[in-house]
Specification:
Layout (H helix, E strand, L loop, with lengths): L1 H14 L20 E2 L2 E2 L9 H10 L1 E10 L5 E9 L36 E5 L1 H6 L1 H4 L7 E4 H10 L1 H12 L5 E4 L17 H19 L9 E5 L3 H9 L3 E3 L1 H6 L34 H10 L3 E7 L6 E7 L5 E7 L1 H4 L7 E6 L25 H10 L12 E8 L5 E5 L9 E6 L7 E4 L3 H4 L2 E9 L8 E10 L3 H11 L9 H4 L11 H5 L2 E2 L6 E4 L8 E7 L5 E8 L10 H9 L3 E3 L2 E3 L4 H7 L7 E11 L5 E12 L2 E4 H9 L6 H22 L10 E5 L6 E6 L4 H24 L5 E4 L9 H8 L10 H10 L8 H12 L4 E4 L26 H13 L12 H35 L4 E10 L3 E6 L4 E6 L10 E4 L4 E4 L2 E4 L3 E9 L7 E8 L24
Parallel strand pairs: 5-8, 6-7, 8-9, 20-27, 21-28
Antiparallel strand pairs: 1-2, 3-4, 10-11, 10-13, 11-12, 13-14, 15-16, 15-18, 16-17, 18-19, 22-23, 23-26, 24-25, 26-27, 29-30, 31-32, 33-34, 33-39, 34-35, 36-37, 37-38, 39-40
Helix pairs in contact: 5-6, 14-26, 20-21, 21-25, 22-24
Protein name: Exosome complex exonuclease RRP44
InterPro entries: Dis3_CSD2, NA-bd_OB-fold, PIN-like_dom_sf, PIN_dom, RNase_II/R, RNase_II/R_CS, RNR_Ribonuclease, Rrp44_CSD1
Main location: cytoplasm
């Protein structure tokens, strides 16, 4: 070892003249020195072959090493040496400086932020808490020439990953002039922690030392009086800085002193809820218990920990999902503001169960918080809480509790609007979030009149016990409410969909154009260009993931191939393009817009299996007999040339047209024949055939408004493609699990708990039928036999309800779970392989499959089951949020569709019955809406709700699930923030409840379709 080190030193000295200089950016956290980013030193970007010299150079400037011993789990002793490297040539980053030998500068010479407090040019140095709490202020274009110390950057990284990412994004913006100074590795600014000194106090002292160094370092004739200003909200830190002769201000004081943008004060986060209180002093909520007591209570079983999920339909109710052992989850009902105790949707909370005699059943009341803003508890609120409670027997009651502490806040910037009822001259206003599950938020703003019709973002700062609503601050304006671009931006932000343009770092890893398949590619791939391969996709699809072929072999069997775009060829592990795709997780399809997971050059060009162009593919090829039994399976990297890019309708026409007998059509007919056998076999094994209504909008080419919508029609070719995609996914799943038993990325679909089927069973019983849910096979058979004479749509409705009972399918790592079963497909193992352009999970599966067939090399993260599990968690989250975003986009475009069409009269079916409303499905439009039977003033219709039915008697008429009704449909835009489709009952006719049949409106004139 010593000889090797001596040889390296000699080599370093001999070659030092030829080596590049070591820029000060090489200095950073010690563990990052050895990190590689795309084969380069993570700081100086010297190639890997030069890393040895970087390390030797740093070792030659080492301050000291600390040695200590640590006891291992096995009882042994391990010697640990920690080295800290210091340098004296780290750049200060300022244009003014003449001492530093810096190749580039960030901090400007003319730093002119006009301030009443500091009239001289100045640089800002924020401490950690200012960065953590005032990141919205730091993002403002006015704030420039800021020094971010390494001490602060490291603390922020450990304490808040979202803020750290935002800070890094600011640092990378050239026009912001934020400079990172590695004070922990500068000889003059590094300090040791003193005996008895806390880590926080040591870091505060390190910040003050760095500010003092900067002040002296830049105190030259050329500086023209430039100052270095420490920004802190810590009174103790401020006093010590002043004692040291530093220029220091509180963040709030400094921001208020700025002349260029007085509205920036609106973006200040409240630092102390009690002193910033803008409400009454009456205590409305119980105090949250300290963390130490909560930890003991959870360990002892007194308290339960779970995720708080607010109800969309009732602001006085929520559910806490407590994860038990394995996959078992307990639901705890919370009712009333007192028991919700300031928890916000998706917070991690500690709950205490109430005595069993106080347990309640979930409320069936639809209750929205539309009252005036009041902070005192009043009788109106108490009356609502009493009205929502259901008198139920013990069997219907569920565990009920109250929130006693917030373990982890899930606060984020929320989109929404200011309340329209503004008080003139007031700076205190109420903000209503777009998400009804989030309570209204009190903010202070001086620009309320200008923001009244705008969609804005607001962040929560705290929630005092004596305030009816949480307190927050204005972040930024998003645009005019109702504007298509603004509303799309809102739904993307609300569902946390990454939609920014791809960065230059990401784009730099795209292949250079013009691109073509090289001889080296052909040498390691199977040439399948002669096969009659074609793709079948929805109309307008440009990101074509998959293609198929089928041909008859000499022995009478069939060769069937599924060919998938080889995206993993272009996206290599660990580079910026790969990391961005992993973070995005999935392509998000909105109405009229697509948010790509990978840049368009790949998604719509080089990876898309378009017709008549050569493309790289990953092929799964089977030999099958005429009964669709698999004789042989193989996987291969390939080159294909698709002979046709067809829509589902075009492929169906080819199959049905007996006059067509070309190779493509014959291939499709063979695929269709085998697919029917595969589907029948799957269903016989218990695979579910469920139903959900999807709509497709016809968009005007000029205005981009929806001019017609219709439910999607499924053809045989839809099923044909689906069957072979399922077969490929199952085959690949087994292959990668055989090779990577501990780290295979798989997908499972858990069986629903029996309670999930309650509404399905009640719905079937209302028609005298029984649904068996003991297994997927029993459920599938029951659904097949569930028919009602004279009601052909009944079975579809029942399958729609059954879909609502299902659990979410999720990705998981095989080494972290033992239950692989996919309930809906009745398959013992499953994964995603067939859509790598739009799903990152498929890219990972491609890499595993490539390794398993010897077509590629493995890498450490691929076989790390903990990293794979963390990746699966992100993919599950991104997939779920993309689904929500898509539904929100459909809802918004549905509102646009009905906006100019007046009142529409349509037939529908009751899907759910509530205590004061019915939820109606309109099959023609794939639309769900709520018909309310309001009884607020006690003079409305008489309502009698039966939980067991469930049924609702309105006057003398009883409504049950699946009853046919006729309703009017219109857009209620009285609330710009929450425009909604309003439904009113037409038939059955109930005096005082039903509305008259509307006159013929604009819908009578059918709009011209843009086809």
């Amino acid at each position: 070892m010593l000889c090797t080190f001596i040889l390296l030193v000699v080599s370093f000295l001999v070659n030092s003249a030829k080596r590049p200089s070591f820029p000060p950016s090489c200095v950073g956290a010690a563990h990052e020195f050895l990190a590689l980013v795309d084969g380069q030193c993570s700081y100086c970007r010297i190639r890997e072959t030069n890393r040895t010299y970087c390390i030797l150079y740093l070792r030659s400037n080492m301050l000291k090493s600390k040695t200590f011993v640590k006891k291992t789990r096995s009882g042994g002793v391990m010697k640990i040496v920690r080295e800290h490297y210091l340098r004296d040539d780290i750049w200060c980053g300022s244009e003014i400086c003449t001492e530093c030998k810096q190749e580039s500068t960030v901090l400007q010479k003319d730093s002119c932020i006009e301030s009443d407090l500091c009239s001289s040019p100045h640089y800002l140095v924020p401490d950690t808490n200012v960065v953590l709490h005032q990141i919205d202020v730091l993002e403002d274009p006015l704030i420039r020439n800021v020094i971010i110390l390494q001490t602060v950057l490291q603390e922020v990284r450990h304490r808040s990953a979202p803020v750290y990412k935002r800070l890094k994004d600011i640092i990378h913006e050239k026009e912001k002039h934020f400079y990172t100074f590695t004070n922990e590795h500068h000889r003059d600014t590094f300090i040791e922690r003193e005996p008895g000194e806390s880590a926080n106090d040591r870091n505060d002292r390190a910040i003050r030392v760095a500010v003092k160094w900067y002040s002296h370092h830049l105190d030259t004739a050329e500086s023209d009086g430039l100052k270095v200003v420490l920004i802190t909200n810590d009174q103790g830190n401020k006093e010590k800085a002043e004692e040291s002769g530093l220029l220091v201000y509180k963040c709030e004081d400094y921001i208020k002193s700025l002349l260029a943008n007085p509205e920036l004060v609106d973006r200040l986060a409240l630092t102390n809820d009690e002193t910033k209180d803008i409400s009454s002093s009456k205590v409305l909520f119980p105090e949250h218990l300290p963390l130490s007591r909560i930890q003991m209570g959870i360990k002892g079983g007194t308290f339960l920990q779970g995720t708080f999920r607010a109800s969309r339909d009732n602001y006085l109710e929520a559910t806490v999902f407590v994860q038990g052992e394995g996959e078992e989850t307990t639901e705890v009902i919370l009712q009333g503001l007192h028991n919700l105790n300031r928890a916000i949707h998706q917070d991690v909370v500690a709950v205490q169960l109430l005595p069993r005699e106080e347990w309640v059943a979930p409320s069936s009341v639809v209750l929205l918080d539309e009252r005036e803003a009041k902070d005192e508890d009043d009788t109106e609120e108490e009356e609502k809480e009493k009205a929502m409670k259901i008198i139920a027997d013990d069997a219907a009651r569920k565990p009920t509790g109250k929130v006693v502490a917030i373990i982890k806040r899930n606060w984020r910037p929320f989109c929404g609007m200011l309340n329209s009822s503004l008080i003139k001259e007031s700076t205190r206003h109420l903000f209503t979030p777009a998400d009804r599950r989030v309570p209204r938020i009190r903010i202070e703003t001086r620009q309320a009149a200008a923001l009244l019709s705008q969609r804005i973002m607001v962040a929560i700062d705290g929630w005092p016990r004596h305030s009816r609503y949480p307190h927050g601050h204005f972040v930024r304006s998003l645009g005019a409410a109702g504007d298509k671009e603004t509303e799309t931006e809102v739904l993307l932000l609300e569902h946390d969909v990454p939609h920014q343009d791809f960065s230059q770092a990401v784009l730099s890893f795209l292949p250079k154009m013009p691109w073509s398949i090289t001889p080296e590619d052909m040498a390691v791939r199977e040439d399948l260009r002669a096969l009659t391969v074609c793709s079948v996709d929805p109309p307008g699809c440009t990101d074509i993931d998959d293609a198929l072929h089928c041909k008859t072999l000499e022995n009478g069997n069939f060769e069937v191939g599924v060919h998938i775009a080889d995206v993993s060829h272009f996206i290599r592990p660990g580079n910026a393009l790969d990391l961005e795709a992993a973070n995005r997780g999935t392509t998000v399809y909105l109405c009229g817009r697509r948010i790509d997971m990978v840049p368009e050059l790949l998604s719509s060009n080089l990876c898309s299996l378009r017709s008549n162009v050569e493309r790289l593919a990953f092929s799964s090829i089977w030999e099958m007999d005429d009964k669709a039994n698999i004789v042989k399976t193989r996987f291969t990297k390939s080159v294909i040339n698709s002979k046709a890019s067809l829509t589902y309708a075009e492929a169906q026409l080819r199959i049905d047209d007996t006059n067509m007998n070309d190779d493509i059509t014959n291939s499709l007919r063979g695929l269709n024949k085998l697919a029917k056998i595969l589907k029948r076999r799957r269903i016989e094994k218990g695979a579910l055939t469920l139903s959900s209504l999807e709509v497709r909008f016809h968009i005007d080419s000029e205005t981009h408004d929806p001019i017609d919508l219709q439910t999607k029609e499924l053809m045989e070719t839809n099923s044909m493609v689906e069957e072979f995609m399922l077969l490929a996914n199952i085959s690949v799943a087994q292959k990668i699990y055989d090779e990577f038993s501990e780290c295979a990325l798989l997908r499972k679909h858990p069986a629903p708990p029996p309670s999930n089927y309650d509404i399905l069973n009640k719905a079937a019983q209302s028609k005298g039928l029984a649904i068996h849910t003991d297994s997927a096979k029993a459920l599938a058979d029951s659904l097949d036999m569930a028919k009602v004479d004279g009601f052909p749509y009944f079975n579809t409705l029942l399958r729609i309800l059954a879909t609502r009972c299902m659990m979410q399918a999720v990705y998981f790592c095989s080494g972290m779970d033992s239950n692989f079963h996919h309930y809906g497909l009745a398959s013992p193992i499953y994964t995603h392989f067939t859509s790598p352009i739009r799903r990152y999970s498929d890219i990972m599966v491609h890499r595993m499959l490539a390794v398993s067939i010897g077509a590629d090399c493995t890498y450490p993260d691929l076989t790390d089951k903990h990293k794979q599990s963390a990746l699966c968690n992100n993919l599950n989250y991104r997939h779920k949020m993309s689904q929500y975003a898509q539904r929100a986009s459909v809802a918004f475009h549905t509102q646009l569709f009905f906006k100019s069409r007046g009142i529409v009269n349509e037939e529908g079916f009751i899907l759910f019955v509530r205590k004061n409303a019915i939820i109606v499905l309109i099959p023609k439009f794939g639309l769900e809406g709520t018909v309310f039977f309001d009884n607020k003033d006690k003079t409305g219709p008489k309502l009698v709700f039966d939980e067991e039915g469930p049924s609702l008697m309105v006057e003398q008429h009883i409504f049950k699930i699946f009853d046919k009704v006729k309703v009017t449909i219109s857009l209620d835009d009285s609330n710009v923030q929450h425009q909604k489709i309003r439904m009113s009952l037409v038939e059955p006719e109930i005096p005082g409840v039903s509305v008259p049949v509307p006159e013929v409106g604009p819908m009578a004139k059918k709009p011209k379709l843009d086809v």
